[in-house]
Amino acid sequence: MAHNRLLNIRRSFLTSLFLLSLGSLSAQTQHPVYHGSKHYSIKVKQFKEEGKLPSNVIVMYGDSHSEYGGDWNRHFPGAVKIINRGIIGDDSKGMYNRLDLVLPYHPKKIFFECGANDLSHGWSVERVFQGITNVLTTIRKQCPKTELYVQSLLPLNEEVGTWKYLKGKDDLIIQLNNKLKQYCASHALTYIDLYTPLLGAKPQTMKAEYCRDGLHLTEKGYDVWAKIIRPYIYK
């Protein structure tokens, strides 16, 4: 009987562990975080292997919107060299954790872009805002001479494509953009509105020709982005 009791206890313990693992998996499926993805690891490894950044460079620092921009130098002939440090799926936490791959080299300018993936995790606007401002504060503290440009979140287009974890979050994007704009105004930072120039005729909706999948930009969309930031690149 004692043996049977031990077996029952063991079965109960293993069942509890199994249920906990299911709960953990469900949570990860509901709000995926990409810091552990293979692509993320490859990009971080690549940045580490590239080592020291050249002096007097511009850094595009963000998520998939920045990474998919590819070689940003093609938009700005004759400008200071531009380094792409965007990673697909990144959020404010991940971008904070990899600042050590950028800040020690004191780049001339940083064009910061972040927030869509944070919102896709189900985080509140306030939580996302705090995560972003934590990154911005760290940049300002460690690189006071670096020109920091804060770019807005981009609009969505659910008619072109729907992203499950961003569906119906157009209002949250606007709220977060407004908070970032106010923050920049009160902290002597330059806020760059990418949202408005990318809109089409329908309110809160990216123009279809600028959007390839409901979230990410076409080449025409990147042309608009480049046109917006051109004065700051050549400044």
Which sequence of strands runs across the widest sheet? 2-1-3-4-5
> How many alpha or pi helices?
8
In percent terms, what proportion of residues is strand? Answer: 5-15%
Structural class determined from secondary elements = alpha/beta
Distance between termini?
Answer: 82 Å
The CATH fourth-level homologous superfamily of the largest domain: SGNH hydrolase
Inertia-based shape: globular
Give start-end ranges of low-pLDDT stretches. Answer: 6-31
Supply Rg: 21 Å
Protein traits:
235 residues; alpha/beta; Rossmann fold; five-stranded parallel β-sheet; 8 helices; globular
List the helices and strands and how they pair.
Blueprint: H1 2-30, H2 38-50, E1 58-62, H3 64-67, E2 82-86, H4 92-97, E3 109-112, H5 116-120, H6 125-142, E4 147-151, H7 170-186, E5 190-192, H8 219-233
Parallel strand pairs: 1-2, 1-3, 3-4, 4-5
Write a structural description:
- The chain has two domains: 1-30; 35-233, Rossmann fold.
- With 235 residues, it is an alpha/beta fold.
- Helix 3 (64-67) links the parallel strand 1 (58-62) and strand 2 (82-86).
- 31% of the residues are buried.
- Helix 6 runs parallel beside helix 7 (170-186).
- Helix content is 46%, strand content 9%.
- The model is unreliable at 6-31 (pLDDT under 50).
- It has a five-stranded parallel β-sheet with strand order 2-1-3-4-5, sandwiched between helices.
- The chain has helices spanning 2-30, 38-50, 64-67, 92-97, 116-120, 125-142, 170-186, 219-233, and strands spanning 58-62, 82-86, 109-112, 147-151, 190-192.
